[in-house]
Amino acid sequence: MLSKAEIKLTKDEYAGFYSCGLTMQGSSTMNRFTRVDEHEGSISMSTDDGITLTSLTTKSPYSDAYEVHTSISNGSSEPVTMEMMTSFLFPDIKADKYHRILSFWSAEGRLLTTDLTEINMEHSWNQMAYRVEKFGNVGSMPVRKYFPFVALEDSTSHTFFAVQLYSPASWQIELIVRTDAGVTVAGGIADRDFGQWTKSLKPGERFEAPMAVAAVGDSLEDVCDKLVKAQHPDISPTDDHMGITFNEYCTTWGNPTIENMKKLADKIADKGIQYLVMDSGWFSDCGNWWEYRGDWSVNKKRFPGGLKELTDYVRARGMIPGIWFEFELVSPKSGHFDDTDHMVKKDGAPLTVGGARFWDMEDDHVRAYLKENVIDRLKNDGFGYIKIDYNDTMGMGCDGPEGPGENLRKKVMGTQEFYRELRREIPELVIENCSSGGHRLEPSFMSLASQASFSDAHEIKALPIIAANLHRVIRPEQSQIWAVLRADDPDSRIYYSLCATFLGRMGLSGDVYDLSDHQWELVSDAITFYKEAAPIIKDGKTTYLDNGIYRYNDPEGEQLVIRELGDKKLIVFHRYKDSVSLEDYLAGKDTDLDGYKTVSGYGTADCDFSAEVRIMQR
Fold it and tell me: For the domain 7-229, what is the CATH superfamily, name and number?
């Protein structure tokens, strides 16, 4: 497997053949490269005046996948300006279908499989005109509309090629067909056409595109597993054993106080829960918490003794205290909304979206403010866990020295550097990556966190569907799945919610102090079984994922996920409307369970909207 690379410089000729505005590949820029040095894993191209474009493809140290690193160096005597640069480019892939993974708020991870012929991606009769399918994301929420992922399938040979892009801001992926040799798949930062991106390099300067990871396999689940296992997150040493989180947001709905947090701590102590996380509403003198983001002073009405009183209490109950921040945004009542010298700007004015503005995360003043109000807060008050939220996007770009897309990318890179600073200052800190749930479930952000909010789909019917879908793009050991428990929940609903957490990291919320003894027994049984299943969730491979649910708001049928490790398989089965039992479902499916016996289990899938989990062993 060997990736190539392309760039497009401004003022150079575009490719023609009806491609201008669709793709920047094939431009005259590539004719400048007169020397090619190709050896194992590397292609390096040079121009006569000293510009060098290098693509390095190396085996991943973590899985059966390949990392691609593409860079450009300007060794010429003049500055050059790019308007397109690929992170990866693989030509002549034999394929007749492609798979994308869609994402909207509380609807993350839906698989979309498309026949290439259906979208007119056959080569032209003279094998010269371009056929282009281009998709991606524009903005600072990299997982909005699509995940930065594509898989190509050759249904004749049953082979799959897939690639995942590590790009935290605007990105694109292109499929191009010109000849009968196959499909060219390329991707990287969203180019000037798609994402308003230009990047200038002075003589002597070098630029590296976002990394990509590619893999081949014999099924979609196989190739996705290789990509996901190639991710190498910076897991806190505190968070190395699949600990359970309780987040109080669906308990207080943004109104935590010292009294109700202590009540929660008392109720869930000694239940096997590692983290108690206080969500939004602890700061300023807030009524509606979202109007005060940016003022991180403690709400003295709710916490008259400060937050150290709370963290000491939580630790005394045997748990690690956590706290919510949304430190990149500033709201109108924060007292900082008009501090515009330090805000991201567009067209010379503060970029304002939905009543919020954005700190400039490259600004030293902003970094100092956040050091004092976020890092020092965590240190001085004794928090061991931070939930980092981010609830809107900057859109196509912002003001700065480069093109709007490159300016945007550098602002987001500033955010990622603050993530790193958090861990440098507090090495054991557990970071939860959240962006309205799942808008940052992208591998470069996931590499900086221990956990991630899988979605904001806390109590909807689609909760287990989304949780299962995410197996294809993030590590289940990082995917925190909420089970919101209510006192009026029947047993079937409790099973439905808790069994979904076996598709990732168990997260709890809800009215737990109102649960009956019987309901608590169901929760305790789930916690006990989760700890038994945790090694399979953490280190296993998802080999079967069947959830072709058409309507998420009104799901029908059944869902089965099988994850295996060694001689054990974890079976997670959910029933939706008009569903059948697990036994009846298995009778019509090839699930490779012959020779396996159930050794333990949790839940009962005996009606619509119920669920069960089993561990089976050969």
Answer: alpha-galactosidase from lactobacil brevis (2.70.98.60)
Long-range contacts of 288-291, Cβ-Cβ distance < 8 Å, separation of 24 or more: 288/254, 289/254, 290/331, 290/355, 290/356, 290/391, 291/331, 291/332, 291/333, 291/334, 291/355
In this predicted structure, the answer to whether residue 286 has a pLDDT above a threshold of 80 is no
DSSP H helical ranges for 47-176: none
Q: Given CA atoms 425, 430, 433, 437 in this order, what sign does their dihedral have? A: negative
**CB of 385 closer than 8 Å to CB of 184:** no
Tens of pLDDT along 7-33?
A: 999 999 999 999 999 999 999 999 999
The structural architecture, per CATH, of the domain 237-453 is Alpha-Beta Barrel (3.20)
**Of 424, 427, 420, 429, residue with least CA distance to 384:** 429
Amino acid, single-letter form, for residue 142: P
pLDDT tens for 42-86 read 999 999 999 999 999 999 999 999 999 999 999 999 999 999 999
- 402-419 confidence digits (pLDDT tens): 999 999 999 999 999 999
The C-alpha atoms of residue 283 and residue 314 are separated, in whole angstroms, by 19
The answer to whether domain 7-229 and domain 237-453 are alike in fold is no
Q: Edge-to-edge, what's the strand order for the sheet holding 568-575? A: 541-546, 558-565, 568-575, 611-617, 597-604
Distance CA 85, CA 186 (A): 10
562 contacts 591 by C-beta, under 8 angstroms: yes
CA distance 616 to 187: 41
Q: What is the 3-state secondary structure (H, E, C) of 524-562?
A: HHHHHHHHHHHHHHHHCEEEEEECCCCCCCCCECEEEEE
Q: For residue 588, what pLDDT band results from cuts at 50, 70 and 90?
A: confident
Listing DSSP states for 122-142 in one string gives: SPPTTS-S-EEEEEEE-SS-S
pLDDT band at 318 (very low <50, low <70, confident <90, very high): very high
Residue of 381, 387, 380 whose CA lies nearest to 246:
387
Contact in structure between 299 and 285 (CB atoms under 8 Å): yes
Q: Left (φ > 0), alpha (ψ -120 to 50) or beta: where does 92 sit? A: left
d(CA 569, CA 586): 15
pLDDT in tens, 188-222: 999 999 999 999 999 999 999 999 999 999 999 99
Where are the domains positioned within the chain? 7-229, 237-453
